[in-house]
Protein backbone atom coordinates (compact mmCIF):
# COMPACT_ATOMS: atom_id res chain seq x y z
CA UNK A 1 0.00 0.00 0.00
CA UNK A 2 1.29 3.45 -0.81
CA UNK A 3 0.26 7.04 -1.35
CA UNK A 4 1.81 10.33 -2.42
CA UNK A 5 1.03 13.54 -0.57
CA UNK A 6 1.91 16.78 -2.39
CA UNK A 7 1.95 20.25 -0.91
CA UNK A 8 -0.16 22.56 -3.12
CA UNK A 9 0.21 25.82 -1.19
CA UNK A 10 -0.53 27.43 2.15
CA UNK A 11 -1.54 24.48 4.37
CA UNK A 12 -3.21 22.49 1.57
CA UNK A 13 -2.09 19.05 0.44
CA UNK A 14 -3.29 16.70 -2.27
CA UNK A 15 -3.00 12.99 -1.57
CA UNK A 16 -3.15 10.33 -4.25
CA UNK A 17 -3.63 6.76 -3.11
CA UNK A 18 -2.01 3.71 -4.61
CA UNK A 19 -5.40 2.79 -6.08
CA UNK A 20 -5.48 6.09 -7.99
CA UNK A 21 -7.90 8.12 -5.86
CA UNK A 22 -7.27 11.68 -4.76
CA UNK A 23 -8.27 13.57 -1.64
CA UNK A 24 -7.50 17.09 -0.45
CA UNK A 25 -6.44 18.02 3.07
CA UNK A 26 -6.18 21.52 4.50
CA UNK A 27 -5.22 23.15 7.75
CA UNK A 28 -7.24 25.36 10.02
CA UNK A 29 -7.08 29.11 9.28
CA UNK A 30 -5.01 29.67 12.44
CA UNK A 31 -2.45 27.23 10.99
CA UNK A 32 -2.31 29.00 7.61
CA UNK A 33 -5.04 26.89 5.99
CA UNK A 34 -8.14 28.06 4.20
CA UNK A 35 -10.52 25.45 5.67
CA UNK A 36 -11.23 24.00 2.22
CA UNK A 37 -10.85 20.31 3.09
CA UNK A 38 -10.63 17.96 6.08
CA UNK A 39 -7.67 18.13 8.44
CA UNK A 40 -5.24 15.18 8.37
CA UNK A 41 -6.35 14.01 11.83
CA UNK A 42 -9.98 14.11 10.67
CA UNK A 43 -8.94 11.87 7.81
CA UNK A 44 -7.63 9.35 10.37
CA UNK A 45 -11.08 9.29 12.00
CA UNK A 46 -12.76 8.99 8.60
CA UNK A 47 -10.50 6.05 7.77
CA UNK A 48 -11.21 4.32 11.07
CA UNK A 49 -14.95 4.85 10.64
CA UNK A 50 -14.88 3.52 7.09
CA UNK A 51 -12.77 0.54 8.13
CA UNK A 52 -15.09 -0.57 10.93
CA UNK A 53 -18.31 0.17 9.02
CA UNK A 54 -16.99 -1.90 6.10
CA UNK A 55 -16.22 -4.76 8.51
CA UNK A 56 -19.61 -4.68 10.20
CA UNK A 57 -21.55 -4.66 6.93
CA UNK A 58 -19.39 -7.39 5.41
CA UNK A 59 -19.65 -9.62 8.51
CA UNK A 60 -23.44 -9.22 8.61
CA UNK A 61 -23.81 -9.84 4.86
CA UNK A 62 -21.62 -12.94 5.00
CA UNK A 63 -23.80 -14.21 7.84
CA UNK A 64 -26.85 -13.58 5.65
CA UNK A 65 -28.27 -11.02 8.06
CA UNK A 66 -30.63 -8.46 6.49
CA UNK A 67 -28.49 -5.33 6.89
CA UNK A 68 -29.69 -2.33 4.89
CA UNK A 69 -27.82 0.59 6.46
CA UNK A 70 -24.86 1.24 8.75
CA UNK A 71 -23.69 4.53 10.20
CA UNK A 72 -20.82 5.08 12.61
CA UNK A 73 -20.39 8.30 14.59
CA UNK A 74 -16.98 8.70 16.21
CA UNK A 75 -16.29 11.14 19.01
CA UNK A 76 -12.62 11.67 19.80
CA UNK A 77 -10.44 13.51 22.30
CA UNK A 78 -6.83 14.40 21.67
CA UNK A 79 -3.89 15.06 23.96
CA UNK A 80 -3.43 18.73 24.80
CA UNK A 81 0.31 18.71 24.13
CA UNK A 82 2.37 17.47 21.19
CA UNK A 83 2.14 14.90 19.86
CA UNK A 84 -1.62 15.46 20.01
CA UNK A 85 -2.54 11.81 19.65
CA UNK A 86 -6.07 10.53 20.11
CA UNK A 87 -6.62 9.69 23.77
CA UNK A 88 -10.28 8.65 23.65
CA UNK A 89 -12.42 7.26 20.82
CA UNK A 90 -16.08 6.43 21.14
CA UNK A 91 -17.80 4.66 18.23
CA UNK A 92 -21.60 4.70 18.05
CA UNK A 93 -23.13 2.45 15.40
CA UNK A 94 -26.66 2.67 14.03
CA UNK A 95 -27.30 -0.48 12.01
CA UNK A 96 -30.59 -1.03 10.19
CA UNK A 97 -32.34 -3.99 8.64
CA UNK A 98 -35.66 -5.82 8.43
CA UNK A 99 -35.60 -8.18 11.40
CA UNK A 100 -31.90 -7.64 12.05
CA UNK A 101 -30.93 -9.39 15.29
CA UNK A 102 -29.17 -7.21 17.89
CA UNK A 103 -26.91 -10.12 18.88
CA UNK A 104 -25.64 -10.40 15.29
CA UNK A 105 -24.86 -6.67 15.20
CA UNK A 106 -23.09 -6.85 18.57
CA UNK A 107 -21.00 -9.80 17.37
CA UNK A 108 -20.04 -8.02 14.13
CA UNK A 109 -18.96 -4.89 16.04
CA UNK A 110 -16.88 -6.94 18.47
CA UNK A 111 -15.24 -8.85 15.61
CA UNK A 112 -14.36 -5.59 13.89
CA UNK A 113 -13.03 -4.01 17.08
CA UNK A 114 -11.01 -6.99 18.26
CA UNK A 115 -9.81 -8.66 15.07
CA UNK A 116 -10.43 -7.00 11.71
CA UNK A 117 -10.37 -3.19 11.81
CA UNK A 118 -6.68 -2.42 11.53
CA UNK A 119 -7.28 1.34 11.75
CA UNK A 120 -9.29 1.20 14.97
CA UNK A 121 -6.98 -1.34 16.57
CA UNK A 122 -3.96 0.82 15.71
CA UNK A 123 -5.58 3.98 17.12
CA UNK A 124 -6.46 1.97 20.23
CA UNK A 125 -2.73 1.84 21.03
CA UNK A 126 -2.93 5.45 22.28
CA UNK A 127 -6.64 5.89 22.97
CA UNK A 128 -9.24 4.41 25.28
CA UNK A 129 -11.82 2.96 22.89
CA UNK A 130 -15.50 2.33 23.59
CA UNK A 131 -18.43 1.20 21.46
CA UNK A 132 -22.20 1.56 21.63
CA UNK A 133 -24.78 0.57 19.07
CA UNK A 134 -28.42 0.58 18.24
CA UNK A 135 -30.36 -1.57 15.84
CA UNK A 136 -33.19 -0.12 13.76
CA UNK A 137 -35.73 -2.69 12.61
CA UNK A 138 -36.91 -1.35 9.26
CA UNK A 139 -40.01 -3.58 9.40
CA UNK A 140 -41.43 -1.28 12.06
CA UNK A 141 -40.81 1.78 9.91
CA UNK A 142 -42.55 0.13 6.93
CA UNK A 143 -45.75 -0.58 8.87
CA UNK A 144 -46.20 2.97 10.15
From TrEMBL:
InterPro entries: KH_dom-like_a/b, OsmC/Ohr_fam, OsmC/Ohrsf. NCBIfam families: PRK10738.1. PANTHER family: PROTEIN YHFA. This is OsmC family protein. It comes from Denitromonas iodatirespirans.
Amino acid sequence: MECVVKWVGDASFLAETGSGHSVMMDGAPEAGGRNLAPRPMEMLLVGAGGCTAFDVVLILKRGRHPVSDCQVRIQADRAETDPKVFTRLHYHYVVSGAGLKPAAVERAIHMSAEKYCSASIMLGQTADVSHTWEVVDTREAQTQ
